[in-house]
Design brief:
The complex is a heterodimer of chains A (115) and B (112). Chain A is mainly beta and 115 residues long. Chain A has one domain (3-114): Immunoglobulins (Immunoglobulin-like, Sandwich). Chain A contains no helices and 12 strands. In chain A, the strands form 3 sheets. In chain A, strands 2, 5, 6, 10, 11 and 12 form a 6-stranded mixed sheet that branches. Chain A has a 4-stranded antiparallel sheet with strand order 3-9-8-7, with no helix packed on it. The radius of gyration of chain A is 14 Å and the shape is globular. The N and C termini of chain B lie far apart (39 Å). In chain B, a hairpin with a 2-residue loop joins β7 and β8. Chain B has strands spanning 3-7, 10-13, 19-26, 32-38, 44-52, 55-58, 64-70, 73-78, 87-94, 102-103, 107-111. Chain B has one domain (3-111): Immunoglobulin-like (Sandwich). In chain B, the strands form 2 sheets. In chain B, strands 2, 4, 5, 6, 9, 10 and 11 form a 7-stranded mixed sheet that branches. In chain B, strands 1-3-8-7 form a 4-stranded antiparallel sheet, with no helix packed on it. Classes of the chains: A mainly beta (115), B mainly beta (112). Chain A binds chain B through residues 4, 32-33, 35, 42-47, 50, 91, 95-97, 99-103, 105-108, and chain B through 32, 34, 41-44, 46, 49, 51, 57, 59, 88, 90, 92, 94, 97-98, 100-106, 108.
């Protein structure tokens, strides 16, 4: 079974600075998908970014980018120019490429943004 | 555009009472639908998913059940709630497996 580990329960960053959230996963599959979700205090889960394992190029969405290291099974999220609205819980998630409907989530990292 | 609605937003129920949480999706047909539970300080646990009307797969055996009476309607139920059923329940949909799942606003369920 796949597992997703987020080793940083809490992180903080100064406004306008850059922060990197870590995620590692364990799998024997070669085809899979990885996601980062954001959950602000309002509790709604919002998709931040998606990465297909077969793509070598790291995904980017505006200020959010990932560092996908397939051999190391690492999928970190970099937030540039941090804003107060970035404060939230961030969850890393794994989806099997074998047509599985289940996403496996990490336990999350709580990000605080200091003005 | 697609939207997902989930209600109620909060619910306080006594132990042993029944439960019905509803989720509907608009703007798409034949979505894959999911129910998750999020305990305090933890990640999401998949409870049920459905790939079509009347088709329910359970990931975690418990006193909860799910039903899909219509294409875009997903209901989470219980006949008798337990204290351990407290938590934050999220409904989600996706167009296909491994496509991003889009979540509703969630229901905070407190059992007294």
């Amino acid at each position: 079974a796949q597992t997703v580990t987020q080793s940083q329960p809490e992180m903080s960053v100064q406004e306008a600075e850059t922060v990197t959230l870590s995620c590692t996963y364990d799998t024997s599959e070669s085809d899979y998908y990885l996601f980062w979700y954001k959950q602000p205090p309002s509790r709604q889960m919002i998709l931040v970014i998606r990465q297909e394992a077969y793509k070598q190029q790291n995904a980017t969405e505006n200020r959010f980018s990932v560092n996908f290291q397939k051999a190391a099974k690492s999928f970190s999220l970099k937030i540039s120019d941090s804003q107060l609205g970035d404060a939230a819980m961030y969850f890393c998630a794994y989806g099997s490429g074998a047509g599985s409907y289940q996403l496996t989530f990490g336990k999350g990292t709580k990000l605080s943004v200091i003005p | 555009s697609q939207t997902i609605h989930q209600w109620p937003a909060t619910l306080v129920q006594p132990v042993g009472s029944p439960l019905s949480l509803e989720c509907t999706v608009e703007g798409t047909s034949n979505p894959n639908l999911y129910w998750y539970r999020q305990a305090a300080g933890r990640g999401l646990q998949l409870l049920f998913y459905s790939v079509g009307i009347g088709q329910i797969s359970s990931e975690v055996p418990q006193n909860l059940s799910a039903s899909r009476p219509q294409d875009r309607q997903f209901i989470l139920s219980s006949k008798k709630l337990l204290l351990s059923d407290s938590g934050f329940y999220l409904c989600a949909w996706s167009s296909q497996p491994n496509q991003p799942q889009h979540f509703g606003d969630g229901t905070r369920l407190s059992i007294l």
